């Protein structure tokens, strides 16, 4: 079934087109709109619907050409079928120059329509429409409750969102004790439940209403306690699939209970951050979870985050790595006051603290970007080191 949208200010024309489309049984229309969209609106529409084919009325040619160029730009490979009431050879020639190969004139003929669909199918088979989606999906998995997973997920998501051109979503999937909404002081907002309920009909209008916006970050909190409502793994996959088209990064805070939908999230994730603390029970559970994930062929995605690490630890990082059988990816200082202050203010940990800098570093590592200023800072340290040594040498020579 070809996935298509119709863009036509002529409502009568799109009704007739929809009729012949349903008769054909070979095309599924996800959306019909009655105006020409431009710039951001068009981009959002195309990302949300990800059509393989756009049936475009060319009634107002300059506007139609703008849409055509937008489709080429945002969805390379997506095929455009021009539709019109008349059949002006000069217009047809213009469209050919613009790369449009298919044209349907009203009244529509079922045989001509079927032939068009066959050609489109063949073309798309050879060169599929490319939807620009992100693979930056990150699951944050507690080894044990209270290890600090939500704190890390929230701060890493904010650090990712603050990077240039890095639209980021944070979803709280800890349905029993999700705290992200509380941590950000969100009130009267929609939650993951509403998003899951609507997962099969999400579009560019529903989505902005569902997510809460905190500075540059979009958030879907866990919301009310509701033991009756379940989230289905399929809903989860649809939700992530949709979000992949809208965001550069998607961070998902999990409960650690390994529910079916959590496993689905981890299947979708590029990295699974397993959060632990340097304590025996937590490390024991971290090892169990790592083995479970390895058994599901997800072991190579796991990156261990060691939270609340101390300067003089009872258990060293090396011992932790030996125990878990995986390297510690990153460590986060124990800074109760810093985390407490952030909670009270309903925002991220201060950027100018050691813990704040560690969250920044995680945000950049997640996006595989180098952190601005780090090179400059290390160069400065290097030079400082040398100037100290230079003066020391001078002193020594003098003596
Ligand atoms: N690096 C840290 N330094 C000091 N305290 C921390 C740190 N990280 C988290 N905490 C504190 O630990 C507690 C648990 O944190 P958080 O809610 O983030 O953990 P969690 O693993 O998500 O817990 P839950 O199982 O309830 O979801 C909170 O009181 C938080 O303020
Ligand atoms: Mg939590």
Could you explain how this protein is built, in words?
The protein has 399 residues and is of the alpha/beta class. The chain has 2 domains: 2-126, Response regulator (Rossmann fold), CATH 3.40.50; 137-368, P-loop containing nucleotide triphosphate hydrolases (Rossmann fold). The protein has helices at residues 11-24, 39-49, 61-74, 89-97, 110-126, 149-161, 180-183, 192-197, 206-210, 233-246, 260-268, 280-295, 317-324, 336-345, 354-366, 374-398, and strands spanning 2-7, 27-33, 53-57, 79-84, 102-105, 137-142, 168-172, 212-214, 217-220, 249-253, 271-276, 302-309, 328-333. An 8-stranded mixed beta sheet has the order 8-9-7-10-6-11-12-13, with helices on both faces. Helix 2 packs across helix 3 (61-74) and helix 6 crosses helix 15. It is elongated, with a radius of gyration of 27 Å. Residues 382-399 have low confidence and may be disordered. It binds adenosine-5'-triphosphate and magnesium ion. Adenosine-5'-triphosphate binds at residues 142, 145-151, 174, 177, 179, 307-308, 332, 334-336, 339, 355.
Strand content: 15-25%
Number of domains: 2
What is the residue-averaged pLDDT?
90
Main sheet attributes: strand count, strand direction, barrel closure: 8 strands, mixed
What is the correct CATH architecture of the largest domain?
Answer: 3-Layer(aba) Sandwich
**What is the CA-CA span between the terminal residues?**
87 Å
Given the structure, what is the number of helices? 16
Give the class-level CATH name of the largest domain.
Answer: Alpha Beta
Which range best describes the helical content: under 10%, 10-25%, 25-40%, 40-55%, 55-70% or over 70%?
40-55%
Oligomer: single chain
Uncertain stretches of 5 or more adjacent residues:
382-399
Helix/strand-derived category reads alpha/beta
Order of strands in the sheet with the most strands?
8-9-7-10-6-11-12-13
Radius of gyration: 27 Å
By DSSP, the count of extended strands is: 13
Task: Tell me the series of helices and strands, N- to C-terminal.
Answer: EHEHEHEHEHEHEHHHEEHEHEHEHEHHH
CATH superfamily of the largest domain: P-loop containing nucleotide triphosphate hydrolases
């Amino acid at each position: 079934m070809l996935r298509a949208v119709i863009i036509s200010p002529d409502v009568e024309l799109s009704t007739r087109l929809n009729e012949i489309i349903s008769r054909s049984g070979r095309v599924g229309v996800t959306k019909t709109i009655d105006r020409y969209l431009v710039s951001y609106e068009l981009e959002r529409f195309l990302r949300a619907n990800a059509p393989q084919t756009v049936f475009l009325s060319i009634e107002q040619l300059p506007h139609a050409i703008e849409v055509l160029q937008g489709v080429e730009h945002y969805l390379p490979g997506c095929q455009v079928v021009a539709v019109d009431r008349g059949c002006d050879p000069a217009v047809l020639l213009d469209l050919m120059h613009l790369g449009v190969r298919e044209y349907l004139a009203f009244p529509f003929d079922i045989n001509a329509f079927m032939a068009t669909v066959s050609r489109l199918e063949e073309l798309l088979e050879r060169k599929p429409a490319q939807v620009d989606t992100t693979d930056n999906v990150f699951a944050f998995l507690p080894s044990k409750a209270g290890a600090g997973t939500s704190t890390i997920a929230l701060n890493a998501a904010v650090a990712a969102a603050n990077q240039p051109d890095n639209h980021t979503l944070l979803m709280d999937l800890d349905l029993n004790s999700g705290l992200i909404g509380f941590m950000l002081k969100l009130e009267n907002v929609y939650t993951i439940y509403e998003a899951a309920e609507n997962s099969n009909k999400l579009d560019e209008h529903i989505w902005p209403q569902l997510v809460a916006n905190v500075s540059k970050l979009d958030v879907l909190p866990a919301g009310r306690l509701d033991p009756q409502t379940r989230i289905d793994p399929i809903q989860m996959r649809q939700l992530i699939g949709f979000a992949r088209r809208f965001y550069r990064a998607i961070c998902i805070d999990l409960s650690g209970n390994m529910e079916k939908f959590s496993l689905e999230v981890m299947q979708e994730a590029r990295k699974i951050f397993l959060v632990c603390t340097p304590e025996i029970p937590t490390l024991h559970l971290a090892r169990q979870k790592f083995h479970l994930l390895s058994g599901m062929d997800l072991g190579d995605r796991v990156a261990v985050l060691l939270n609340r690490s101390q300067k003089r630890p009872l258990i060293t990082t090396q011992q932790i790595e030996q125990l878990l059988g995986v390297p510690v990816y990153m460590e986060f200082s124990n800074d109760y006051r810093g985390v407490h202050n952030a909670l009270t203010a309903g925002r991220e940990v201060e950027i100018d603290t050691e813990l704040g800098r560690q969250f920044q570093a995680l945000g950049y590592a997640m996006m595989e970007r180098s952190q601005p200023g780090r090179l400059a800072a290390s160069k400065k340290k290097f030079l400082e080191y040398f100037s100290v040594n230079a003066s020391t040498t001078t002193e020594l020579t003098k003596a």
